[in-house]
Amino acid sequence: MSETEGQVPTHVGFIMDGNRRWSRANGKNYEQGYNRAMDVLEAVVEHAGKKGVKFVTTYTFSTENWNRPKIEIDLLMRLFEYALMERVQALHKKNVRFRAIGRLSGFSKSIQEKLSQEVERTKNNTGVTLTLALNYGGHAEIADAVNKLIASGKQEVTENDIQQSLYDPDLPPVDLIIRTSGEERISGFMLWEADYAELYFLEKNWPDLTTQDIDIALEDYIQRKRNFGA
User: For the chain, which domains are there?
Assistant: First the structure.
């Protein structure tokens, strides 16, 4: 048996794809679709924690998402503020610790302040850690880490230097990435942290995801043999 075979993953990443497709297929507007997506996220985070997962990171808003129509960007920004006020507080009551990674300075001061407030509010929680990847790109994270090291005067960079300069160096490696909507790629998600991640793809869109789907994905992971190059 390999080192991790038979164990629940410590860190699961979710690429929450298919929200707009779900909205169109079900005759809903995008706001309804994204609200449904947040319902699913709450349920998934709580369920993953109960199953023994310690860290959940979600690809919530990528650096490329700014290219979407302005009306949709405005909607997403409003929903972010709502989520930070309502959804994260609900998870706080369930002992979830909240974090955020990405180029957070790209958001409004109001959103940045709310992010900081919720990180501070939940920092002593001992349940699953939920990290939202916001204005995030895997290439951007590595580039930002290298630039941080250059600014510090580093002349030679090691892998550990880069690890310690990531958006959240305390995040453990991603063990499992689950992507919905039938797309089979990681789209720049956690490139450094997910170099040995197992991949699991579902045909259904994110708003249709159930806790049973999570159970099946976790069981699939548990059955895999991970040799890490050995």
Answer: 11-223 (3.40.1180.10)
Q: Which one is catalytic: 26, 35, 39, 65?
A: 65
Find the catalytic residue in 17, 19, 135, 213: 17
At 66-109, the pLDDT tens digits run 999 999 999 999 999 998 889 999 999 999 999 999 999 999 99
Q: Please say if 215 is a catalytic residue.
A: no
- Concerning whether 17 is annotated as a catalytic residue, the answer is yes
d(CA 187, CA 202): 15
Judge whether residue 229 has pLDDT over 90.
Answer: no
